[in-house]
Recover the amino acids of this structure.
């Protein structure tokens, strides 16, 4: 029954997608992050729903009269384009070409939908709908895992949907850490008590789910996320007390094996090399540095394989994935790749700060301030937990940087289209004779110099332009 319902829904939305491709992008995000087909039992379990909905979305972009194909040009989009080109170059020169092209194909499909987000998410309403889709999709697994952890006393690890980007317990923890701030944005936006209670329960169970994943990187990211949230909000004493109380409660209810795993990060007397997981990480990081040092273009996708280990680090005893977004990029894309990758997300963070400055003092645009701030918080969580988890090509962080770009585009358009008198109310006026008007961040406004007014006043029959009377009016 689930298989039939899901199939009818997805294929029933294809005609809508061809007319309004924005809906296709939302459905694609829902399938990508929630993986609803993994909740079925028959033919839909392995069916490629995303392939058909993505194709319909791209066709809708090309032929829909409601869509204008244009990608905003700024530092973020330029760096994103350069990174995609560089990844393609490194795939051509990869150490493992057969499997590298398979990974490149998956990466490019994700980037095509990133392009679609640039084109389609051009309004506040669509950005909020996309935020809702991401929160409900990832939050479903967070709530499911949180309830499972509470009912079992944390005796078992929490995993994500099978055969997905977030199937592993560590990867699910990272996705939840990146989604919890977006839940905070939706909680802040809605006044309805029931919706807020639903979002709050999803946030709390997602936090419990991160703990239940037994992910040390996720646990560290959760601490950093809570610290940044505490620093960037008011009511620090109350929020700090609640945060510490929740941490102590969670610490107290988890079993001994969870404590043993987490305390290994902080125990100075523990021998790091006794931990197979840590040993494997160190071997992977050594491999990444060795490959990047030997090859400017890195090793390409699937560098972390046994033949490459045996060639570059023959003494390695463990052959595993990078377990770090940074070393994953260093090993597979080289030092040029890691520079582009770092600049891409740093400039996304910077663009969010610019948007926040642009809407300062504008209650009607408060949503953009909140969305940008919480997306920045999500990127902080990604950068922290990602240091110990290998999800450099996961589509969620690329979706977030796209949302930061489009939030800035929406705000810039809204401010530029405001009537002149409306902008003057926001900007305020200086005293008569001043050479400039106060300038609101994000608005580029030409101000008529006062010295030219004085020059015009000296000419018979003319009045200064700043007085509001057209030039050339006879006195």
């Amino acid at each position: 029954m689930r298989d039939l319902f899901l199939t009818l829904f997805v294929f029933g939305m294809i005609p809508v997608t061809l007319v309004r491709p924005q809906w296709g992008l939302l459905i694609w995000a829902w399938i990508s992050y929630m993986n609803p087909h993994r909740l079925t039992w028959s033919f839909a379990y392995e069916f490629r729903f995303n392939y058909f909905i993505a194709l319909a979305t791209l066709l809708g972009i090309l032929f829909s009269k409601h869509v204008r194909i244009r990608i905003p040009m700024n530092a973020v989009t330029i760096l994103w384009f350069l990174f995609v080109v560089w990844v393609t170059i490194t795939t051509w020169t990869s150490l493992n070409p057969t499997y590298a092209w398979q990974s490149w194909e998956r990466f490019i499909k994700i980037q095509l939908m990133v392009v679609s987000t640039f084109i389609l998410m051009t309004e506040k309403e669509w950005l909020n709908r996309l935020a809702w889709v991401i929160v409900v999709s990832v939050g479903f697994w967070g709530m499911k895992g949180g309830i499972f952890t509470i009912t079992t006393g944390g005796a078992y690890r929490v995993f994500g949907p099978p055969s997905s980007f977030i199937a592993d317990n560590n990867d699910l923890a990272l996705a939840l850490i990146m989604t919890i701030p977006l839940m905070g944005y939706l909680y802040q936006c809605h006044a309805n008590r029931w919706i807020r209670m639903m979002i709050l329960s999803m946030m709390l169970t997602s936090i419990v789910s991160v703990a239940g994943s037994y992910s040390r990187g996720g646990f560290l990211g959760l601490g950093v996320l809570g610290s940044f949230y505490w620093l960037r909000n008011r009511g620090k004493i109350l929020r700090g007390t609640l945060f510490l109380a929740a941490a102590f409660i969670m610490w107290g209810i988890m079993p001994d094996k969870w404590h043993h795993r987490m305390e290994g990060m902080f125990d100075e007397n523990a021998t790091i090399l006794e931990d197979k997981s840590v040993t494997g990480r160190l071997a992977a990081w050594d491999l990444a540095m060795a490959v990047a040092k030997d090859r400017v273009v890195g090793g390409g996708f699937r560098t972390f394989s046994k033949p490459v280990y045996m060639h570059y680090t023959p003494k390695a005893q463990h052959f595993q994935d990078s377990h770090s977004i940074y070393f994953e990029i260093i090993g597979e894309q080289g030092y040029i790749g890691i520079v582009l990758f770092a600049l891409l997300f740093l400039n996304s963070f910077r663009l969010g700060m610019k948007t926040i400055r642009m809407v300062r003092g504008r209650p009607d645009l408060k949503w953009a301030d909140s969305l940008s701030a919480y997306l920045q918080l999500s990127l902080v969580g990604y950068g922290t937990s990602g240091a110990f988890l290998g999800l450099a090509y996961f589509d969620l962080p690329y979706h977030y940087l796209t949302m930061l770009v489009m939030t800035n585009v929406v705000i810039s358009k809204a401010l530029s289209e405001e009537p002149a008198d409306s902008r003057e109310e926001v900007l305020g006026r200086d005293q008569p004779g001043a050479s400039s008007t106060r300038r609101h961040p994000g608005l580029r406004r030409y101000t008529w110099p006062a010295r030219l007014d004085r020059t015009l006043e000296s000419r018979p029959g003319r009045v200064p332009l700043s007085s509001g009377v057209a030039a050339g009016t006879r006195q």
Notes: Residues 73-416 form one domain.
